[in-house]
Amino acid sequence: MEGMPRAPMVAPDMRYIASHFHDNPNKYDSSLDELEHLRTVVSHCRADVEAICISKRYFAQLSMMKKRFPMEEHDPILIPFAWTDRGFDLMNQVIYEDVNFEMCCVMLNIGVAHALVAADESRLEMDSIKNAFMHFQWASWPLQYLRDHMGASRFTLSDFESPYLTFYLNIFLAQAQECMLEKSMIDHRKPVVIARVALQTHVMYRNCEAYLKASGISDLLSSSKYSELERFCTTKSFLYSALYNYYLGQQAEDEKQSGTRLFYFSRALDLIKLAQKAVEKEKKKQQLGETVQFAFDVILLCEENARKENNFIYHERIPQEEELTKYEGVMMVKPLSFDPCDPSIAGDDLFRELLPNDVVKTISLYSEEKNKFKREILDLVAQKDSELE
After folding, report:
1. pLDDT of residue 86
2. Residue ranges of the domains in the chain?
3. For the purposes of burial, counting CB atoms within 10 Å of the CB of 172, is it exposed (0-12), middle (13-18) or buried (19 or more)?
4. Average pLDDT of 372-387?
5. Which is one Gene Ontology cellular component term of this protein (predicted)?
6. Closest by alpha carbon to 76, among 97, 103, 105?
7. The domain 161-339 belongs to what CATH superfamily?
8. Which of 84-88, 180-184, 227-231, 375-379 has the lowest mean pLDDT?
9. Among 216-225, 269-278, 343-352, where is mean pLDDT lowest?
């Protein structure tokens, strides 16, 4: 989404400061200017770490402002927040006089920006893999929070629909798991360990594919985008299922089990061929196609060698699938949150000197009770002193 700022926020806030807090509004000109600056940066929807930090600070400031200024729907302060819904590749402007709408849009953009930063990583070296791994997990939490806690679906944007948020939440986590698999392979972990990570990656993409077909998300996407996502999930599901079997074949090779080795390599070859068929239908297949082709070449060579060695040297029986050990995948990822109340994220509260009436009353009541308690203690001390005399 691309932000389209409309009405300035200065006038209504200044009037409310004067009427409700009985304070001089001019004292907060710099705070209001800073808030406008934050929104301007956020509305440009840049996908970099600096912009993400600014978006989080803006979200945190809005959270603190909600406690002071009634800016929700039907509240006294009416500020039109305008954003653009790009559903079905069309530009549709949406406006709500509700700060919760603004916060939902900002939260969504935080998640999307994290995902774009992660996807832009080359993942050719370890630091790049780690960055992608972290950003995909950071990307998933805003979508989960929007769906479960912010009630975003009440606003008429396709991006806020629960099936849409759930699908991309799962995709981001699957891609984070994929990064962990890449790290495991580079670290040369034991084949069975890599196999279990690959199995979980396969399961996550398979679940994404199943959810895509069953959730009704096709109503929220163009047909071309839906087909692209379906092929993407299908290809990766087959790819990582093939790698799961490939690494179990490597484990069998280490254990000198020639028949078992051939079984797994043959299974891996069948699956990588299915991945090839799926990726052939993808228009933007270059990078994913190269990945599948590389895996195919390696698996094919291993399968041919295993078959020749077993046929001419070892002559071991190829086991049935039910005879082999069953493995479970290992989940290595979870949504990673941020705390809007963390000063390192929010910065200084722009309106920290404005205390809501209930806070002022509470502080006053606390002071009265404190003084009363102090007087009682002093009276008791004086009484005991007189008794001792």
Report:
1. 66
2. 1-123, 161-339
3. buried
4. 87
5. endosome
6. 97
7. alix/aip1 like domains (1.25.40.280)
8. 84-88
9. 216-225
Say if CB 146 and CB 160 are below 8 A apart: yes
With 90 as the cut, is the pLDDT of residue 276 above it? yes
Is 189 strand, coil or helix?
A: coil
Q: Kindly state the tokens that stand for 36.
A: 């406008």
Q: How far is CA 281 from the centre of its chain?
A: 28
Query: What's the rounded Cα separation, in Å, for the pair 21 and 353?
Result: 10
**For residue 82, what are the β-bridge partners?**
95
What is the SS3 assignment for 170?
helix
Residue type, 93: Q
Mention every residue, 6+ apart, whose C-beta is less than 8 A from residue 183: 126, 129, 130, 133
Burial of residue 226 (number of CB atoms within 10 Å: 0-12, 13-18, 19+) = middle
The C-alpha atoms of residue 119 and residue 113 are separated, in whole angstroms, by 10
> For residue 91, is pLDDT > 80?
no
Supply the mean pLDDT for the chain.
90
Beta bridge partners of 81: 96
Question: Does 84 or 9 have the greater pLDDT score?
Answer: 84
The reported pLDDT for the residue numbered 188 is 95
User: What angle is formed at CA 157 by the lines to CA 235 and CA 82, rounded to 5 degrees?
Assistant: 130
DSSP letter at 216 equals -
Paired residues of 261 in beta bridges: none
Q: Which residue has the tokens 């986590």?
A: 173
Cα gap 192→358, rounded to integer Å = 60
* Of 277, 80, 291, 278, residue with least CA distance to 185: 291
Residues found in the chain? 389
Whether pTM exceeds 0.90: no
CA distances for 188 relative to 74, 129, 181, 183, 184, angstroms? 60, 15, 11, 9, 6
Torsion sign (Cα): 318, 272, 135, 55: negative
Q: What is the pLDDT of residues 298-320, one digit of tens each?
A: 999 999 999 999 999 989 999 99
The SS3 of residue 198 is: helix
Q: From CA 361, how far away is CA 378, in angstroms rounded?
A: 26
